[in-house]
C-alpha cells in the first residue's frame, strides 16, 4: 500500500504525527520508529501544522489518505489540534481514524473537551517510551469499537486525578511536564544525532591521518631543501 508516495508493508501501523515543535516531532518519530510492539511496526509521517495534516488526509479535496492513526499536538497556530480532531471525527467513513491528542499543559477541561469530541486518548508531553503502548492500545480499541458512537467512547474513559508520586498518569491525570520534560526530549534528539554522526567517524579518522601524512611529507621536503641549500653554499 502507498502512503504519501511511499510503499508501506501490510501490517504496519501508519501514524500521522502533527506538531509545530520540531523537537517534539522528532521525539515522536524516534519512539514510534524504534518501538518493538506486539502490534507490529510503525510507519511515521510527520507534518508541522494541522492545515498540512488536513491536506494530507484529504479533508479539503475529498481524496483520503490511508492512515491508521493521527497523533496531534493540541496547541498550534491557525488551526489547532482540537480543530483537526473535530474535522477528522466529522468524516462519515466506515473506518474512522483514531486520534490521540498531546499537550504540554495538562488541564482537566482541555482533556474532557478532547475526549468528548472523540479523541481516543490524551497524553501529556513530552512523549515517553511507555506512552507508545498507550497509543497501540488506543488504536486497537478504536478498531474493535468500529462505528460505535464517539460520545460513548469518550464517556467510557474516566478522568481521575493521579497519585502525587506519579509523574506520568493515565488519561485525565493532572501532572506538569515542566522544563525537565523538554530537556529529556532534546536529549533524545541529540542522542539520535550522535548515532547518525558515528558512522562518519572512520572516514574522519582516515582524513585526519591523510592530512597528518601530508604535513609530515611537507616538513621532510622543507628540511631536505634547506639542507641542499646549505650544501650548495659551502
Automatic annotation (TrEMBL):
<dbReference type="InterPro" id="IPR011006">
    <property type="entry name" value="CheY-like_superfamily"/>
</dbReference>
<dbReference type="GO" id="GO:0009736">
    <property type="term" value="P:cytokinin-activated signaling pathway"/>
</dbReference>
<protein>
    <recommendedName>
        <fullName>Response regulatory domain-containing protein</fullName>
    </recommendedName>
</protein>
<feature type="domain" description="Response regulatory">
    <location>
        <begin position="14"/>
        <end position="140"/>
    </location>
</feature>
<dbReference type="Pfam" id="PF00072">
    <property type="entry name" value="Response_reg"/>
</dbReference>
<dbReference type="GO" id="GO:0000160">
    <property type="term" value="P:phosphorelay signal transduction system"/>
</dbReference>
<feature type="region of interest" description="Disordered">
    <location>
        <begin position="146"/>
        <end position="176"/>
    </location>
</feature>
<feature type="modified residue" description="4-aspartylphosphate">
    <location>
        <position position="73"/>
    </location>
</feature>
<keyword id="KW-0902">Two-component regulatory system</keyword>
<dbReference type="InterPro" id="IPR001789">
    <property type="entry name" value="Sig_transdc_resp-reg_receiver"/>
</dbReference>
<dbReference type="InterPro" id="IPR045279">
    <property type="entry name" value="ARR-like"/>
</dbReference>
<keyword id="KW-0597">Phosphoprotein</keyword>
Amino acid at each position: 500500500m502507498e502512503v504519501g508516495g511511499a510503499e508501506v508493508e501490510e501490517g504496519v501501523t501508519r501514524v500521522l504525527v502533527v506538531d509545530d515543535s520540531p523537537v517534539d516531532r522528532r521525539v515522536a518519530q524516534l519512539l514510534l520508529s524504534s518501538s518493538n510492539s506486539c502490534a507490529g511496526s510503525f510507519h511515521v509521517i510527520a507534518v508541522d501544522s494541522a492545515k498540512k495534516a488536513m491536506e494530507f488526509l484529504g479533508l479539503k479535496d475529498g481524496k483520503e489518505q490511508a492512515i491508521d492513526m493521527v497523533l496531534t499536538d493540541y496547541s498550534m497556530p491557525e488551526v489547532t489540534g482540537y480543530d483537526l480532531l473535530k474535522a477528522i471525527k466529522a468524516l462519515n467513513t466506515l473506518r474512522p481514524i483514531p486520534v490521540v491528542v498531546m499537550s504540554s499543559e495538562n488541564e482537566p477541561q482541555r482533556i474532557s473537551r478532547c475526549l468528548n469530541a472523540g479523541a481516543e486518548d490524551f497524553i501529556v508531553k513530552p512523549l515517553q517510551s511507555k506512552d507508545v503502548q498507550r497509543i497501540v492500545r488506543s488504536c486497537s480499541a478504536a478498531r474493535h469499537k468500529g462505528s460505535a458512537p464517539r460520545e460513548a467512547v469518550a464517556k467510557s474513559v474516566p478522568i481521575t486525578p493521579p497519585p502525587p508520586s506519579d509523574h506520568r498518569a493515565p488519561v485525565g491525570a493532572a501532572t506538569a511536564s515542566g522544563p525537565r520534560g523538554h530537556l529529556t526530549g532534546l536529549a533524545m534528539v541529540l542522542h539520535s544525532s550522535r548515532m547518525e554522526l558515528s558512522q562518519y567517524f572512520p572516514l574522519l579518522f582516515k582524513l585526519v591521518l591523510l592530512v597528518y601524512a601530508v604535513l609530515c611529507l611537507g616538513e621532510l621536503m622543507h628540511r631536505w631543501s634547506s639542507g641542499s641549500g646549505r650544501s650548495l653554499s659551502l
